[in-house]
């Protein structure tokens, strides 16, 4: 590296998730900020990253990436193909960690040229250090590699390794999308509070404290959620009336169906992104052997500017 500091990790994409991970990493490990590279084409994002963290933000992939032992993919899945192409020539030796939804390890391996791939499915509470990430590793990932991934992700919250890659679709359905379900119930509680004559702020405080308190109690207790529920449900009482109403409306069955729908959609998105990434892989392999040579039918491996990238669909 030009400044004589050896880079330790490179992020491709410097948005919300990358910023949460970089902030946690620097705070938890006391790592020198300049050992962290970020490839981020957006000028304002780069300026923010440099100011907020002191990391080295690059406008495009360059040869500095070749010295980085670990690459973290944190672009939107739709942007992966374009982001991977200019990196391919430099990153085959690295351990790769992806936090992108839906991009599978075979596509990541083909696009990066590395067999050492870990996929993580975080959730939005990672932004405040209270997330949970499901993790899957390919067989080439060593125990040391896993430890490095855990060190990087630990400040974002809890970590849960799964044995099969398809289990990440279930993790996506449970905890990846999960915060939205919790907000959905909180919204319903706030609505009901208003209908019963309470103010919106009062409803909000009651709902949030109830979720936080019930979750803390379930976490600390040896009893199952079902036992804890029964303990606040005396026959003929208020909770009983509410739960009977939920059962009459088959809410639990509907909610379980909703989780299955999310699981199916996660699998479908993986299939869609997998097809797109496979095309990238072919281009990536060609770019790796001749980084300065434009490949027929593909975008040239030149620095990407914000203006030249074109619109990236948002999730
Ligand atoms: N946010 C979450 O809580 C969460 C939870 C689970 C999983 N994830 C996953 O994390 C990933 C990132 O999400 P995010 O919320 O952090 O998105 P984000 O804030 O949009 O960050 C993505 C960043 O990548 C940049 N980028 C776009 N094209 C690029 C390229 N070719 N090379 C390098 N960087 C490029 C974007 O720049 P522009 O703004 O200029 O496009 C943006 O700054 C996604 O794949 C998502 O599925 C996020």
Q: What can you tell me about this protein's structure?
A:
The chain is of the alpha/beta class. The protein folds into two domains: 9-168 and 274-309, NAD(P)-binding Rossmann-like Domain (Rossmann fold, 3-Layer(aba) Sandwich); 176-260, ProC C-terminal domain-like fold (Orthogonal Bundle). Helices cover 51% and strands 11% of the residues. It has twelve helices and eight strands. Strands 3-2-1-4-5-6-7-8 form an eight-stranded mixed β-sheet. Helix 3 links the parallel strand 4 (70-73) and strand 5 (95-98). The longest helix has 39 residues, at 251-289. The radius of gyration is 23 Å and the shape is elongated. It starts with 8 loop residues before the first strand and ends in a 6-residue tail after the last helix. The model is unreliable at 283-315 (pLDDT under 50).
Outline:
The protein has 315 residues and is α/β, with parallel strands linked by helices. It has twelve helices and eight strands. It has two domains: 9-168 and 274-309, 3-Layer(aba) Sandwich (Rossmann fold); 176-260, ProC C-terminal domain-like (ProC C-terminal domain-like fold, Orthogonal Bundle).
Shape: elongated
Contiguous helical run count: 12
The rounded Rg comes to: 23 Å
Question: How widely separated are the two ends?
Answer: 35 Å
- Please list the strands of the largest sheet in the order they lie side by side: 3-2-1-4-5-6-7-8
Number of domains: 2
Outline the biggest β-sheet: 8 strands, mixed
């Amino acid at each position: 590296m030009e400044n004589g500091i050896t880079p330790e990790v490179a992020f491709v994409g410097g948005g919300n998730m990358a910023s949460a991970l970089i902030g946690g990493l620097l705070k938890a490990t006391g790592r020198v900020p300049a050992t962290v590279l970020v490839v981020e084409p957006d000028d304002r994002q780069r300026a923010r990253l440099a100011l907020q963290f002191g990391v080295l933000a690059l406008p495009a992939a360059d040869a500095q990436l070749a010295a980085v032992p670990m690459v973290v993919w944190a672009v939107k899945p739709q942007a992966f193909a374009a982001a991977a192409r200019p990196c391919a020539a430099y990153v085959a030796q690295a351990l790769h960690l992806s936090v992108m939804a839906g991009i599978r390890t075979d596509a990541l391996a083909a696009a990066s040229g590395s067999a050492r791939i870990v996929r993580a499915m975080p959730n939005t509470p990672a932004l405040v250090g209270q997330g949970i990430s499901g993790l899957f590793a390919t067989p080439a990932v060593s125990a040391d590699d896993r430890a490095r991934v855990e060190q990087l992700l630990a400040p974002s919250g809890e970590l849960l390794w799964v044995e099969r890659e398809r289990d990440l679709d279930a993790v996506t359905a449970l905890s990846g999308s999960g915060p939205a379900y919790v907000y959905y119930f909180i919204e319903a509680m706030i609505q009901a509070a208003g209908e019963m004559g309470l103010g919106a702020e009062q409803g909000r405080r009651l709902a949030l404290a109830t979720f936080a308190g019930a979750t803390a109690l379930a976490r600390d207790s040896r009893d199952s959620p079902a036992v804890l529920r029964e303990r606040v449900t005396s026959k003929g009482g208020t909770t009983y009336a509410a739960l009977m109403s939920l059962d009459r409306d088959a809410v639990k069955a509907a909610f379980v169906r909703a989780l299955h729908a999310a699981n199916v959609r996660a699998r479908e998105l993986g299939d869609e992104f997998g097809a797109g990434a496979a095309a990238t892989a072919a281009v990536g392999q060609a770019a790796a052997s001749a980084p300065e040579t434009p490949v027929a039918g593909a975008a040239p491996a030149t620095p990407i500017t914000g203006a030249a990238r074109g619109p990236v669909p948002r999730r």
